[in-house]
């Protein structure tokens, strides 16, 4: 098994890769996404499921041709906003390949990610997705991916939060990273509705 592979080895790169993520609706939290590489080629897309996809609690990540790579689904009932990831288009009885939940450690702002098919492989997401400023760390506390604001190269102006960068370190699965972004967006949207505040703030009372 290739190191760093969780979803699809086609999205593991030998060099650092910077993807531009564009929310396709500015009117609803967690609507759709398109993801492009530095050459402007479409890499991933996510279509929305109606005006309030939170009701569905399930989001599908597709490649540029519409092939289902990954389904993320909210686990119900759930403590700490637990979500699970499934290879391809999820079917009944299918086992998840990873789970992501809010860290239950008091005073720590972040999310914990556990990969099931590789015991001991886990990740920590720290920062604020609402501010588009997050880092994904592996178990060795090494940064493997970052979410950050995108700056227009010609004007040096920071773009709006509907456009941001997903930077991947060499060897880290880009499809897995984008799956984590989808979950963060869903949780951030829930926070926006529940707390009227678009911040990824953990609570100890979930």
TrEMBL record:
Query: Which InterPro entries has this protein been placed in?
Result: LOR (IPR007612), LOR_sf (IPR038595), Tubby-like_C (IPR025659)
Transmembrane ranges? none
The entry's family comment says: Belongs to the LOR family.
Tell me what this protein is called.
Answer: Protein LURP-one-related 12-like
Which organism is this protein's natural source? Durio zibethinus (Durian)
Organismal lineage: Eukaryota, Viridiplantae, Streptophyta, Embryophyta, Tracheophyta
């Amino acid at each position: 098994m290739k190191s760093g592979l969780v979803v699809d080895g086609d999205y593991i790169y030998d060099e650092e890769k910077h993807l531009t993520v564009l929310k396709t609706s500015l009117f609803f939290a967690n609507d759709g996404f398109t993801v492009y590489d530095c050459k402007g080629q479409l890499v991933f897309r996510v279509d929305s499921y109606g005006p309030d996809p939170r009701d569905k609690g399930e989001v599908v990540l597709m490649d540029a041709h519409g092939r289902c790579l990954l389904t993320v689904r909210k686990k119900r009932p759930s403590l700490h906003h637990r979500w699970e990831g499934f290879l391809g288009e999820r079917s009944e009885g299918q086992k998840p390949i990873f789970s992501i939940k809010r860290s239950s450690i008091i005073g720590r702002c972040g999310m914990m990610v556990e990969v099931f098919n590789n015991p001991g492989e886990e990740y920590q997401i720290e920062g604020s997705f609402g501010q588009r400023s997050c880092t994904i760390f592996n178990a060795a506390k090494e940064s493997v991916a970052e979410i950050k604001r995108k700056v227009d190269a010609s004007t040096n102006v920071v773009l709006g939060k509907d456009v941001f960068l997903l930077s991947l370190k060499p060897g880290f699965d880009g499809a897995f990273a984008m799956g984590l972004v989808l979950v963060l967006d869903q949780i951030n949207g829930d926070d926006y509705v529940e707390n009227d505040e678009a911040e990824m703030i953990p609570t100890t009372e979930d």
